[in-house]
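Treating backbone geometry as a discrete language has practical consequences that deserve illustration. Part of our work consisted of pairing the sequence of a single chain with a tokenised description of its backbone. What the numbers capture is local backbone geometry rather than side-chain detail. For completeness, the protein is quoted in full, as a sequence line and a line of structure tokens:
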Amino acid sequence: MNSEKNRKTADLLTICFKAGKAVKGFDPAIEALKKGMVYCIITASDASAKTVKEVEFSCDKYEAVHLPSGLSKDDIGRLSGKSAAVIAVCDKGFADGFAKLLR
């Protein structure tokens, strides 16, 4: 995590986790997406190509935004206590913040 963009992403993700507005892990994220609770899904920089492809497919199907991040699974683990390649954001304000940072 060396760039300014990654630091800002990490800071926003930390706040999002503390607010209880993020779901960690592929299966829980996709379940929340199917229930209409998700505004965007963030993937780790080292997520597998298969995971990214499945996230993009699900985001298209359920009308959410996919945002690849510059953070690794380990970076996300340090922020949230558990390594994860997929994070679902369940708050429009946070999702808009990530969209500004990651686009």
User: Anything to note?
Assistant: The two ends are 18 Å apart (CA to CA). The helical segments are 4-18, 26-34, 49-62, 73-80, 92-102. The longest strand covers residues 40-43.
